[in-house]
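Supplementary notes for students who missed Thursday's class. We covered one full example, reproduced here. Read the sequence, then the structure, then the short commentary at the end.
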Amino acid sequence: MLELYANAGCPYCQKVLKKLSELQIDFIWRSHDFMAGEKSWGFKIGGKTQVPLLLDQQKGVVMYESDSILEYLDEKYS
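Structure (token representation):
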């Protein structure tokens, strides 16, 4: 299952959420805590304190950047 590390107020995260909804993809929402810095799960997984962060464990994919994530979702899940 996909995991999305994001913040509700982030416009880039909203783009990814919209695409996940359009494609009717089940995913786990993980709220990213910027205050945790390098102790956050997002940093431990991807090495950055940046959102959105998409984790696709089945395919071994960890990616940032909303446009890249949108392309990936279209390519692999539409």
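Commentary. The chain has a mean pLDDT of 90. Strands lie at 2-6, 27-31, 53-56, 61-64. If anything here is unclear, bring it to office hours.
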